[in-house]
Design goal:
The protein is mainly α. The chain folds into 3 domains: about 20-115, Orthogonal Bundle (Fumarase C, Chain B, domain 1), CATH 1.10.275.10; about 120-365, Fumarase C, Chain A, domain 2; about 370-435, no CATH class. The protein contains 17 helices and 6 strands. The protein has helices at about 20-25, 30, 35-50, 60-75, 80-85, 90-105, 105-110, 115-155, 175-200, 215-225, 235, 240-270, 295-320, 335-355, 360-370, 375-380, 420-435; strands spanning about 160-165, 165-170, 275, 360, 395, 410. The strands form 3 sheets. It has a two-stranded antiparallel ribbon. α3 (about 35-50) packs antiparallel against α4 (about 60-75), α4 (about 60-75) packs across α6 (about 90-105) and α8 (about 115-155) runs parallel beside α14. The two termini are about 60 Å apart.
């Protein structure tokens, strides 16, 4: 095997070097280095696949696998080496090949036989999404458990349920907490769908038209923990639906976290004072020493736009592309990486804040004392046959006072009696059992 004139994976027909500014502009190693573990895993699988078809000898496979293991170990333990050695790498694929050539000489180039970076990056990216979707799923399970623990601890505490931010009907605090938990269980389902969307191996698709070697694609897919191979090579190298699915799942999580954050920002205000912000998840003011600000929740709420923006950005990139691989697809990773990192942090912070937040049970009870909140349930009771034809009227002594809560008098008092409290406790116990089952 003869030496190549440089370490690029392309360039045989070019006579002049690329413009320096353009060369820097088109490089992606600064961010796609994150795919390095997956690139090495795919390289291992490809080396094994080349032996049965006579491209690699058994000795060459052994040497290549040993070199890949050495590169993986060094990259994991020495980030400074990755920085310096990868300073002139165009992308993660060139980085690994350059490192292989340093270890093996010309044999390092041989691994690229019969394959394209188009299929490589699609495979690496799918493996990444499958891994990180599980990471977020486990984080959500922790958050749901934190909500469930608080719901159990506050099972008997009633609160004024609201619609339009107006007191509406009495519920339990646990019912409120479990409502948020329910939304996060749907997010887990969407993460599972994104994982299923990514679960197909493109290797063997070539640049766009498949592979002329008798590569055992099914064996490669199995070795990389895919359940199947992609069906169409032209689609496989350009499909980023799995990335869209993952970003959609992340956007849903961020939206639900933002709604949870909004509730706690309101409840921590002096106008509500329902919750006690934990010192660990709050900050103060440089000017007003009395302040305790719900910064954890506000930042979660604020970061949600970035996650939604990542989804819209990728949709916008994809909508104008013809079928097959286009270099525009290099822009699919940075926003997704950032969105994943942000959501992982948001879920972790929300879990910690939920676990350490205090609840003012006395104020929850006081808020539930608004007699109007029981009107709906009392109406249901009154309409039952055993309650006869009792008529209840609500009169307001001063119409102007209606703007203030609880400034009313009633001909017949409506209170949260023991039967109603038992009813709400029963409903929330069902919720708790339902969430525990998930």
């Amino acid at each position: 095997m003869t030496d190549r004139k440089d370490s690029k994976l392309w360039g045989g027909r070019f006579e002049r070097a690329p413009d320096a500014r353009f060369d820097a502009f088109q490089r992606s190693f600064a961010f796609d280095r994150r795919l390095l573990p997956y690139e090495i895993a795919v390289d291992r699988a490809w080396a094994k696949a080349l032996e049965p078809i006579g491209i690699f000898t058994a000795t060459e496979v052994k040497q290549t696998l040993a070199a890949l293991d050495k590169i993986a170990a060094r990259a994991e333990s020495d980030s400074a080496w990755v920085d310096s050695f990868g300073a002139d790498a165009e992308d993660v694929h060139q980085f690994v090949e350059k490192a292989l050539v340093e270890e093996l000489g010309p044999l390092g180039w041989k691994l690229h036989t019969g394959r394209s970076r188009n299929e490589l990056v699609a495979t690496d990216f799918r493996l990444f999404v499958m891994d990180v979707a599980l990471e977020i799923k486990l984080g959500l399970i922790g958050l749901i458990r934190a909500l469930l623990a608080q719901a159990k601890a506050k099972l008997g505490v009633p609160m004024a349920g609201m619609t339009h931010l107006q007191h509406a009907q009495p519920i339990l605090l646990s019912h409120f907490l479990l409502a948020h938990a329910e939304a996060f269980t749907r997010d887990i389902t969407r993460l599972q769908s994104a994982t299923a969307s990514a679960d197909a191996c493109p290797m063997g698709s070539g640049a766009l038209a498949g592979n002329s070697f008798a590569i055992d694609r099914a064996a490669m897919a199995h070795g990389l923990s895919f359940s199947k191979i992609t069906a169409n090579s032209l689609d496989a190298v350009s499909d980023r639906d799995f990335a869209l699915d993952y970003l959609f799942a992340l956007s849903g999580i961020a939206t639900h976290l933002s709604r949870l954050a909004e509730d706690f920002v309101l409840f921590a205000s002096q106008e509500f004072s329902y919750v006690i912000l934990p010192d660990e998840y709050a900050t103060g003011s440089s000017l007003m020493p009395q302040k305790k600000n719900p910064d954890a929740w506000e930042l979660i709420r604020g970061k949600t736009g970035r996650i939604t923006g990542a989804l819209v950005a990728l949709l916008t990139t994809l909508k104008g592309l013809p079928i097959s691989y286009q270099r525009d697809l290099q822009e699919d990773k940075e926003a997704l990486f950032a969105a994943h990192d942000q959501v992982a942090d948001m879920v972790s912070v929300a879990k910690g804040a939920i676990q350490t937040t205090g609840f003012r049970d006395d104020l929850w009870l006081d808020a539930n004392g608004n007699p109007l909140t029981n009107a709906g349930k009392m109406t249901e009771k009154i309409r039952r046959p055993n309650f006869g034809t009792l008529q209840i009227e609500i009169t307001v002594d001063d119409p102007k006072a209606y703007a203030a809560p609880w400034t009313i008098t009633m001909n017949q008092p409506i209170v949260l009696d023991s039967e109603l409290l038992d009813y709400y406790c029963l409903e929330n116990e069902k919720d708790v059992r339902h969430l525990e089952g998930k």
